[in-house]
Amino acid sequence: MGADHLSGAAMLRIDGLRKAFGEKTVLDGLAFEVASGEVVSLLGANGSGKSTSLRCVVGLERPDGGTITVDGVTAKPGEAMPTVAMVFQKIHLVPRRSVLDNVCAGALGRLGLSRSWSVLAFPREVQAEAMACLDRVGLADRAREKAGRLSGGQQQRVAVARALCQRATVLLADEPVSALDPAASEQVMNLLRSLADDDGLAVAAVLHQPNLARRFSDRILGLAGGRLVFDSRSAEVTDETVASLYRPALEALEAAESAESAESAEMREYA
Ligand SMILES: Nc1ncnc2c1ncn2[C@@H]1O[C@H](COP(=O)(O)OP(=O)(O)OP(=O)(O)O)[C@@H](O)[C@H]1O
Fold first, then answer.
1. For position 8, what pLDDT does the model report?
2. Which of 100, 186, 211, 214 is deepest in the core (most CB within 10 A)?
3. Positions of E strands within the chain
4. What angle, 0 to 180 degrees and rounded to 10, lies between the N-to-C axes of helices 152-165 and 124-136?
5. How far is ligand 1, taken at its centre, from the CA of residue 47, in Å?
6. Which tens digits make up the pLDDT trace of 63-115?
7. Which residue has the CA at smallest separation from atom 26 of ligand 1?
8. Is the per-residue pLDDT at 170 higher than 50?
9. Ligand 1 centroid to 27 CA: how many Å?
10. Cβ of residue 26 lying under 6 Å from some atom of ligand 1
11. Residue 249 covered by a domain
């Protein structure tokens, strides 16, 4: 699984990343790397900072500190690097436009067009590239259909094709399979894996399914409180390691529930 690429230089390097929303520190000096050809999964309880870290990398959030380096080039704070693309749980396609147009939209940045959909037709060479990207994700035969008519799993693959048309070297995926059934999840995870193995992309995915993370990634990063608590090869991540990530959140929930039931017992006593 991508082992050949692991010795390569990092395609994505994050160092000392910090981000706060008001008083709340969400990323507290996060650091990790993803090599070309590698799939890395981010696991952690709700609110541990997984999405925020990816959103900082793609320029959707402006970090308060730290550096993000892509293929040796360090981004200015809040800058969107042209070769970093992201796919989301809620798939952002324009449902009324054709699948092909949605994929062509990946080229808008380098065409110097704003992210507007006013263009009536994309240049022929962009359309040809988009078709090749659609072929890569196995959906060339659906190019002329409206994107909204495709299944969730197919739409996620179209979003991946759009990232390819952007010529991404780093693909970030924020819960890419959380809304998909098991068969579609499998297909999307296989696609991410093969983009790393066969096309040399550096893939970082936030997942809520530890088993998928173990099966499809080279390494798993465990996050808690905006910090890295482990960075291990997938085969070395045990059930106990995973459980320890979620335990504090579970204990906090149990404590809140028992405080609530103690309070209602007290209220019943007074009633
Ligand atoms: N725009 C924002 N404004 C204020 N707080 C935010 C904002 N975005 C995220 N947060 C807070 O930052 C913390 C980390 O959020 P983040 O989405 O990165 O966590 P996560 O690990 O991806 O969680 P989940 O698994 O629930 O998606 C949370 O407490 C969240 O409420």
1. 56
2. 100
3. 10-21, 24-35, 39-44, 65-70, 73-74, 84-88, 170-174, 202-206, 219-224, 227-233
4. 130
5. 5
6. 999 999 999 999 988 888 999 999 999 988 999 999 999 999 999 988 876 55
7. 46
8. yes
9. 10
10. yes
11. no
Block residue for tokens 């994505």: 12
**51 and 116 housed in the same domain:** no
Contact 82, 170 (CB under 8 A): no
Instruction: Please name the residues in contact with 256: beta carbons below 8 A apart, sequence gap of 6 or more.
Output: none
Say whether both 75 and 184 belong to one domain: yes
Same domain as 130, residue 12: no
C-alpha 207/C-alpha 83 separation (Å) is 22
Q: Which residue has the higher pLDDT, 77 or 193?
A: 193
User: In this predicted model, which residue has the larger pLDDT, 186 or 262?
Assistant: 186
CB atoms within 10 A of CB 157: 25
Contact by Cβ (8 Å): 50, 44: yes
pTM (predicted TM-score): 0.89
Q: Whose CA is nearest to atom 19 of ligand 1?
A: 47
